[in-house]
Every structure is written in C-alpha cells, then in structure tokens.
Amino acid sequence: MSQVLTADQKYRNLLTALGSLGHAVVAFSGGLDSTFLLHSARQALGNKVLAVTVVAPYTPRADVQDAKATAQALQVRHLLLDAPFPETIRDNPPDRCYRCKHHLFTRLVATAQAEDIARVLDGTNLDDLDDYRPGLKALGELGVISPLLAEGLTKQDIRDLSRRHGLVWDKPAGACLLSRIPYGTRIEDAELRRIDQAEDFLRELGFAAVRLRSHGDVARIEVPRDRVADVIEADRQHGIYARLTALGYRHVAVDLAGYRMGSLNDHAS
Prior knowledge:
This protein is α/β, with parallel strands linked by helices. It has helices at 7-19, 32-45, 61-74, 96-114, 135-141, 147-150, 155-164, 189-204, 228-238, 240-246, and strands at residues 24-27, 49-55, 77-82, 120-121, 211-215, 218-222, 251-254.
C-alpha cells in the first residue's frame, strides 16, 4: 500500500526535485499554481530561475499585471513574451487548448533555449487531471515538466502551503479568455476585449470569482451560488446591465447554477 504524503512532505520532495534541475524557466501566468511553483523554484534554485509570461490577445490584462507584480515581489527575473493569435484556433475548436499550448509553449521553449536553459516548468497540479485538459498532451510533446503534478500536489495542498509561505492563497482559478466562448464560435479580437472589459468591471464591484460567458449577444454571468443575489443588488447600485449593454450585449443573464470552472467543457470531452 502506497504511503499518503502530507503537503509538507510533498513540498520537501518538490524542492529536492527542483534543486536537481540547475536552471529552469517557469511558465508564469501569475495565478495561484504558477506563483507557488515560481516561489518554490526561487527557494530551490536561487537566481537560476527565470519567469516567462506569454501574452496573447486572449490573456486577461489583469493577469499580466498580477504576474509582473508577483515576479517583482519574489525578486525573480521576469520576461513578457508577446505571442500573436494562432490562426489554427480562430474557430475555437474542441482541441483549442492543445493547439494553443503547443503554439505558446513552442515559443517559450525557444526563449529558454536562447537563455541556455534546458528545463521549462509549468504549474499543472493533480486536480487538473479531473477537467478536460487537452493541452497537457502538448506539454508532454514539448518536454515541459510539471513538478507540482509529479509530486502529487493538489489544489488544496497548494492553497495551504501558499498561505503558510506568505503567498496569495485564496485567488480564484484563472483561465484564458477563450474559455468564455463556446466551442465552434469564431473568435474576434473585439470580442476578447469586450469580455475582458466586462470581467474587469465585475471584479471592480467585488466579484473576485467571476466568469462572463459570451454567447453572441447574450452575456451569462457566473459567480459562486451564494453571491448570485449580490449580482442583482450590484446591478441596482452600479448598473451592470447598463454597462454590459453598452459593450454590445442585448441580454444579460445570471447563471443560477453558479460559477463552475470549465463550464463550457461539459460537452467537449
């Protein structure tokens, strides 16, 4: 029977594994998982770690700002790598995540090679295997290492350890803006900007865990179920409907099922 490791034991194993790499590039989104990975790599490798944030047209602006601030706070060298929209995913196919990851991480691996760094790391954790994640195949093909997954760290492990290490631990899960649009829908840059602006507005109103699922002229707002009533009140006070219709939506709905990570993946897998 295999031994069940505690979060602290997994963390010690993680530091040992990271320390054996010598140098590493961390694919850094600024989210909870990649922040914990970057912190751990900094502890294990010191100055021999480089954070790289790939900025695509579907990267939320708030995520880029968070990544810049966090890398600075961790005292890690940080590069922003601009990436054009890959036309192979313009029609938002079900394997979008695979094609996107392959496109973006190919550029990231090339950046690592230019820096004479052999290892590229990403923040996939054990719980990510429970969702529809075709992008994991691309990481394997490109030789990207997922140390958190390798050491069996779950999302709760990462939250607990992040809290103890003084990192942001309660940040909601993030995802690219393409995840707000149903599969098979052609992606326009203007639509991505509209979604980003709408979610920025909703976060400013205090909805940290929020998704704006965009269905043509319908905006479907997802927040945790215990905050659905708060959306109605926020609309009364701050004009959510008015703001979103000004962005071009004709109808604004609140999803009574609440926020679900990857809710548009339900029929993709």
